[in-house]
Amino acid sequence: MFGSKSLTEAAVQKRETDIELLLAEVNASSASARSAWILLIALEAYFLIALAGISHRDLLLNTPVAQPILQVSIPLRSFILFGPVVLLAMQAGVLQQHIILARKLKALDALFAANEFPALSHPGRLRVNSYYFSQIEAGPETNLVLRGCFRAMDWLFLRLVPVGLLLAFQITYLPSHDLEITGWHRFYVLVSLLMVAGASSFLAGLDKVYPGSETLTRDSVLRKFAAGFAATAVMVFSVAIATIPGEWIDRLLGSVEAVAAPVPYQGLGNVTHTPPPGARGRTAFAPTAFLFEGEVDDWTRRRTSLFSRNLIVMDEDLVRDQETSSGETSLSLRGRDLNFANFDRSDMHRADLTDSSLKGASFVDANLENAKLVRVRMQGADLSFARLAGVFTQGVLLDGARLCAGDTPLPIETSTGIERIPCGRDR
After folding, report:
1. 272 and 234 in one domain?
2. Cβ(349)–Cβ(319) under 8 Å?
3. Which residue of 109, 214, 255, 270 is surrounded by the most CB atoms within 10 Å?
4. C-beta separation of 47 from 69 below 8 A
5. 403 DSSP assignment
6. Structural domain ending residue among the three candidates 286, 303, 320
7. Which pLDDT score is estimated for 427?
């Protein structure tokens, strides 16, 4: 046994040196990960505020989005398309840092565990960086409330909020009826879910390398998330519920009687408005009807549903006469998909609506004087009390639309099923 004491002392000293070196590396990595995590939260807050400030008027007019720090404005479509890419890149970077940090924390926790009794009592744990992720993986013993708060922070800001913001991008731009952009938004949501599932799977795999250590992925909520329960619900919402009217999935689900509901959706206490003949009998997937297709309230100028997938631009002056000369186009909406939009009492005189689709749109008491309606699809549109003096028309489809009785500049002789209603004196 000669020399065993010195050998034991050398081994202990080596373990303590390893702990000190790894502890220093863990604390440095934790500081870097915390900085990236805070930057991610700041980016999430910015996107949340920016999206909240985008109105349906902005969507109609493609109003640029102001950037408060850079003091520049970004085109709305570019912001909606590339903003999620920035968010995904930031989320991926933070998740990657946490994966690297987790490996180091697991190794440190194993060294602590081999040199402590009782568990979680090694004095070195008190020197672990105060970052929540580091405290969970290698910190000292904490009460259940604090530990629950740590886990909630990780689940919220690294997983729930990024996915929720990507859905918010999709919902915000949905009334523009841009199928290409909506397709990209669905792809972004899928990528985010795959990144979260991959990170959770990797962290769970570390338990096999360092058995007995506790990890965030042991939470039942995150197990279900990684297994696909929450991910499936999110993807169903993005693909099957938050749809554009008339796209293939909307037509498919709206045609299945067992899961379809009439739109506009008549919720409890909603004010019922009878749509024109061409807009009646429309159906959609029941969750879509409930969440996106509520009746439009004339007082609040909002839908009674939680969201809206069609533009509502009521009581708005959309024309800036001082910026245009007489006879010049005041507002260009050429080629736009404005189906089922609501423009009641809005000023759109001299607007160019060439090649646009306005099926089921509402123009009650709207000002369309001298507007250009060329090859416009207005089946089921409501033009009650609309001011139409001087309108230039060519190839307008008005089947099932609603118009005031009497003379009209619109070519009603080429359309069928038009409803003519008494509107009082000429307007």
Report:
1. no
2. yes
3. 109
4. no
5. E
6. 303
7. 43
